[in-house]
Write a structure and sequence with these properties.
The complex is a heterodimer. Chain A contains nine helices and one strand. By secondary structure, chain A is mainly α. The chains are: A mainly alpha, B mainly alpha.
Chain lengths: 283, 333
């Protein structure tokens, strides 16, 4: 996928739907919300889904910030990289989830997040260092660090939705060995890179891009909801069924709201939206 | 029986990759891909569907994995596979259409300053062909994953069931089919079609970028023309590539299993005759026997694979030499 367009000029317009916080604020808010939700594995699935949405939103914003420099083909790659970090970090996190328990709070899982922040920072420094790879992308160190953390948070939350706890053996049994990890991986990475990839162009606008991320998170909730509801009988009974169906309905609502909103916004902000027509003649 | 299932997988792979290639032409994900992305920016306003869902490999991994998970859930609920696999593929295609809409609308809206409008008839008119072609590909891939997952049960040798779960196999096959579809059969791309009068191998000059998105042989060009053009040769040849890859791969493993003695051993152990009892007792008492048989199987399989690889390399060299001789001097030589 090759995309031209050269350096993208940032144009902040006040019209239409906007996300109030800027990049840093959104990162901090999303991180705090996701971390608070992730360390309490006893919460219902819908609350965890809110955490997933915020974590992926943060990831999308980081992808956008890092790729805006003109990555082009690198946009999908960086999303896949983020979820690669995410899976590693999530496995490290749940391996440490058993320690440091304070009643229902399990802060041990944050070790995975911190580990991936360090790994991301190191790979960012290595890629940008002139003596090693010398990519010279501004903000790559911070972007990689954020991607690693967002990916890990999103993945741990999804594990915890499907397995109902952060027990390592339970997660391996209910989320990894039955192949569900594949759909988590592929939909989360799409939620991270597809928004910016789909809205790429000189007239890309941040609120529009972020809407797509929330929409895809809605789809992720639908799929996980179907899975949790359908396998409830074999996993954890009625609570699982309620969790699954509430997740499904939540995902459906989120998806419909943001899909319609995005399509309307994009059609309004395009040069023009016409039923049909011939192409403009070039002299 | 095992060979029959393997051949069925090969056939499904052929169909899957053929439709995958045509679908990617329909959505401009593979064929004049970068041309479509660039066209409006160099002033060539067009009526193309701009389906920018990453590369083909990750996007097909997405649809096939969703199809695999939905089919897996239905199979857990003991739905008949003949029903579960199409429903899974349908779910995968629903996701595909949603992603296509966001990609086309988003990309076109981001090209506002180049006066590229969103043509609603282009948007709606391409969704159904995208969904139908994609459905065929996803259906075949999910079926392959299902057959592989249950290969042992279907062919009567339970030891041959694939250790991976269905969604994981669908993920792997989705990436494979996307990667092969994206690298093979692009006979429409720029230089190949529009510049047939240029010297062989010249490539494409930047000044012509985006021109191929404007006019067809008759009227304004859309992706439907491209899929029609590619369906005659590009699509089938892509399917053939994937089918042949799967054929050689399965054939070499099966030949290794036959000659190495793994399959005869499994067959003997599954039977109720005296030989079966002897085989079971022997493998229990002397674990070195099955280990040696396994080693031999792997070695023969690898040797056959190397032989196939050498034959293919030699064949490619011969074909390239012939083509260069036949179609004139290659630019740059």
């Amino acid at each position: 996928m090759t995309v031209g367009g050269g350096p993208v000029v940032e144009e902040e317009k006040a019209e239409g739907f906007t996300f109030p916080p800027d990049v840093t604020q959104l990162g901090i808010i999303s991180a705090i919300i996701a971390i608070v939700i992730v360390i309490i594995p006893g919460l219902p699935a819908v609350v965890k889904a809110v955490g997933v949405i915020f974590a992926l939103l943060w990831g999308t914003d980081s992808v956008r910030k890092t790729s805006k420099y003109g990555l082009g083909t690198g946009v999908p790659s960086i999303g896949v990289l983020a979820m690669g970090y995410g899976i590693l970090g999530a496995l490290v996190g749940i391996a440490f989830a058993g320690i440091l328990n304070v009643s229902i709070v399990q802060p041990g899982v944050l070790i995975g997040v911190i580990a991936m922040a360090i790994v991301g920072l190191i790979s960012g420094v290595l890629s940008n260092n002139e003596k090693i790879i010398g990519m010279k992308i501004p903000g790559l160190e911070r972007g990689m660090m954020e991607l690693g953390m967002a990916g890990t948070l999103a993945m741990v939350l999804q594990f915890s939705i499907v397995a109902g706890s952060l027990n390592f053996d339970l997660v391996i049994e209910k989320a990894v060995s039955n192949g569900l990890i594949a759909v988590m991986f592929v939909l989360s990475m799409m939620a991270m890179f597809h928004p910016y990839n789909a809205c790429l162009g000189p007239d890309e606008r941040r609120p529009r891009t972020l809407m797509v991320s929330i929409e895809i998170s809605g789809l992720l909730c639908i799929i996980l909801g179907i899975f949790v509801a359908a396998t409830a009988g074999s996993t954890w009974g009625v609570a699982g069924l309620v969790d699954g169906i509430s997740l499904l309905i939540f995902g459906l609502i989120v998806w419909i709201v943001f899909f319609v909103k995005f399509i309307k916004t994009a059609m309004r902000e395009a040069h023009s939206t016409v039923g049909t027509g011939l192409i403009r003649t070039i002299e | 029986m095992l060979f029959a299932w393997m051949l069925l997988i090969v056939f499904l792979a052929l169909i899957a990759c053929m439709f995958e290639d045509l679908e990617s032409d329909m959505g401009s994900q593979s064929n004049p891909n970068s041309q479509v992305q660039l066209a409006a920016q160099v002033g060539q306003v067009n009526r193309f569907f701009n389906k920018a869902i990453s590369g083909e490999a990750p996007s097909y991994a997405l649809y096939c994995t969703i199809a695999g998970v939905v089919a897996y859930v239905l199979l857990l609920r003991e739905v008949n596979p003949l029903l579960a696999i199409p429903i899974g593929a349908l779910a995968g295609e629903a996701i595909h259409v949603i992603f296509s809409v966001t990609a086309h609308v988003g990309r076109t809206a981001a090209q506002k300053r180049f006066e590229q409008p969103i043509y609603l008839d282009v948007l709606y008119g391409h969704l159904l062909p995208i969904a139908t072609h994609g459905f065929m590909a996803t259906l075949c891939i999910t079926a392959i994953a299902y057959i592989q997952c249950n290969l042992g049960t279907l062919s009567g040798m339970p030891a041959l069931n694939h250790p991976f779960a269905l969604p994981l196999l669908a993920f792997i096959w989705g990436i494979t089919v996307g990667a092969i579809g994206s690298s093979t059969g692009d006979i429409h791309y720029g230089a190949e079609r529009e510049f047939q009068d240029r010297p062989f191998g010249e490539g494409k000059r930047v000044v012509y970028h985006g021109k191929i998105t404007r006019y067809a042989d008759c009227g304004v060009r859309t992706q439907k023309d491209i899929a029609y053009f590619c369906a005659k040769y590009g699509g089938p040849v892509t399917g053939l590539t994937f089918g042949v890859i799967i054929l050689f791969e399965s054939w070499r493993s099966l030949v290794g299993m036959m000659l190495g003695g793994y399959l005869p051993l499994q067959e003997a152990m599954a039977s109720d005759t005296l030989l079966g009892t002897v085989a079971r007792v022997a493998t229990e008492l002397l674990p070195a026997i099955p280990a040696a048989i396994g080693d031999l199987t792997a070695i023969i399989g690898i040797l056959v694979g190397l032989a196939i690889g050498i034959v293919l390399i030699v064949g490619n060299v011969v074909i390239v030499k012939w083509a260069r001789k036949r179609y004139g001097p290659f630019v740059g030589e």
